[in-house]
From TrEMBL, chain A:
InterPro entries: PepSY-ass_TM. The keyword Flavoprotein does not apply. This is PepSY domain-containing protein. The keyword Cell wall biogenesis/degradation does not apply. It holds the Pfam family PepSY_TM. The chain crosses the membrane at residues 12-38, 137-159, 187-209, 352-372, 392-412, 424-443, 455-473, 485-502. It comes from marine sediment metagenome.
From TrEMBL, chain B:
Keywords: Membrane, Transmembrane, Transmembrane helix. This is Iron transporter. The chain crosses the membrane at residues 20-41, 48-69, 75-96. It comes from marine sediment metagenome. The keyword Transmembrane helix applies.
From TrEMBL, chain C:
This is DUF3325 domain-containing protein. The keyword Glycoprotein does not apply. Coiled coil: none annotated. InterPro entries: DUF3325. It comes from marine sediment metagenome. Pfam families: DUF3325 (PF11804).
Amino acid sequence: MAKQASVTQSMSGLHTWAGLIVGWLLFAIFLTGTLAVFDKELNWWMQPELHDTGLDQVSAVRVAESWLRERNPDASAWNIGLPTERGPSLSVSSGEQRRGQRTQLDADSGEVVVPRETLGGNFFFHFHYTLHMPRSIGIWVVGFAAMAMLVAIISGVIIHKKIFKDFFTFRPAKGQRSWLDGHNASAVLLLPFHLMITYTGLAIFFLIYMPAATDVLYGGDREALFSELRPGNEQQVERAGRAGEGGRAPRAEVPAAQMLPLEQFIGRGEAYYGEDMLGSLSVSNPDRANARVEVRPVMGTRLELTKGESLVFNAITGEVVGAPQPTRTTLLTQKVMAGLHFAQFGGYAMRWIYFLCGLISCAMIASGLVLYTVKRRRQVKSDTRWLRQAEWLNVAVIGGLMFACTALLWGNRMLPANMAERELWELRVFFGGWLLALVHARLRAPLRAWAEQLTLIALLLLAMPVLDMLLAPKALDGLRLSVDASAAAMGLILGWAAWRVVCQPQAVKKTAGETKKIRTSRTGVTS
Amino acid sequence: MSRVATPAARLWPAALARTLLAVVGGYAFTYSAVAALARLLPGEPVDVVISATLVSFLIYTLYVLWAFAVPLRRALLSLLVIPPLALIGFWPNLFAGAA
Amino acid sequence: MSVSLFVAVFVVAYSGMLACCLGMERHWKKRASRLPTSWRRYCRPLGVLLLALAAYLAMQLWPLAMAWVAWLGLISLSGLGLLFLLPYAPRLALSLPVLAVVLLVIGAIWV
């Protein structure tokens, strides 16, 4: 019996400390990851100069092809970013780098559009797995946090004594009890999600985190492993394509040839990947005898992460010269895990499920962090200095990051569109905003800091539709309005939370036991 | 429950030791366990690498939990398992190097 | 993707979770004590059945593998929704399935 108790005890200590120390980190990772579910939509929102012309992909390709043939007839490659459901813009680029500077075209007129420079929703995506540190360091820090999360989840399950009995139990306005209920319920009911998202997150960079097997069987040479993994067929096509472009046969020596109209390949690509599933199309050696057309799907045609997959055609004859090979079972397992984490499949319904689950993960982590301070406050003997640190850090990280994200969206609209080094300024707005929130959290009493930051964030979010209507009225379309509406909805929720904190001011003066009541309602809200 | 009485100052070194053991020792343990798995699992090398590496996070997690659940001395003893595991994984590499 | 089918999956999942919840003694006593006690024992089988139905409906919306992911996500979310509705709006929590069915029927007739 005594032994049993001490195991629970040590698990409880492990849960508390692992949770507290990486909890702040985890909140940042989970919040930005949740926002990154809608990264493409945020990209679109953050460039209001782009318009949805409603043009279908076939017509868009026609526009892009004639534009490219006119401007860059001798380029080694043409790349066309197709308008999709999640980003209805048409972009083109020429030359080797697919990721290089892209020119945005108005799909109707074929004229160049110059959108504002912006960090875009991509910022949240990159922050999610690097925390804006150098990539090689960032992914290790995030990986460490994810491991701690895994440990915290399982130790949490071990110490939760009434996991089934309390399955649907939430008792509001009961101080610590409510915080615990809220934390437990959001953790238990979404346990599959928490476990899945954490483990699959680790699985994305699995070979970097754990190089042991590669060290044993490949002498630590990851490239050797990857080249063995690449299906033979694809490799050959790639080599053939490269040889045509560079080295062996200089471009001028290959005779000119009449390509099939590029728009034809849309239909053929869709026949393979499904309707509305194409993301981009590129041509190597355009208008030459060795021209190749490559059609790439958007991510999420299936569960497996299909990054970099493509269907290759001979551009002259139209025959298929390279199709994606089925992935071998082990690699498929890893790619399905990565796909489950990236959440690109299943359309908007699935994206919303992921988004809501992500928000609840954030609330679960936040409620755990707050629970720590609430619990500590009741223990009279506890070290108040450490408690005070935890309290202001909670506000600085939870409130501060939400404020910084909101500030970034506001900054995107407020900063002049043609400003020099605009991306850098947006970055300054984000981190400057966070720094301000941090200072504010340090200076104010905890409850006041909560109330003030939550109110401010709520107001900023609620005002986002107005801001958008005032500063980018022409850009309003379904996609951008949905972003505004979602922001306002989150503003409402945070506003309610703020109201629950503000509207019981007597509790600020009352004992610690009473103050918890207010915060209790906040968990209910953020969950 | 007897541990509750222990003063906080005396708990710290033990907690630190345990945390270090869990984090650093756990990684070393997982590393050598995955190395051994990579050598022992049947199949083509690529498949073995992927499967052995994918379960590594599970091994690490379980080790950390175990390291906190058992008495510290027993947890420390687990470090002794690391060299043999690593040896299983790396002996052909080492042997080839020596020859 | 059909919105009404999506709503239907959610509602069925919610109803399933509600039935499972009422199958527990604590919640039955608190929320449904007016009903005959013998009904309680049918709650859990009914809940499981409804959850299975939700899975079946999800398969009409998504391919098999994706459907399982969506199903797990939806029953988690609806369970959590139920959890927070119960203390704050118990009547709404209990009548939501009925309301939703009425709305769906009206919607189906109207469209």
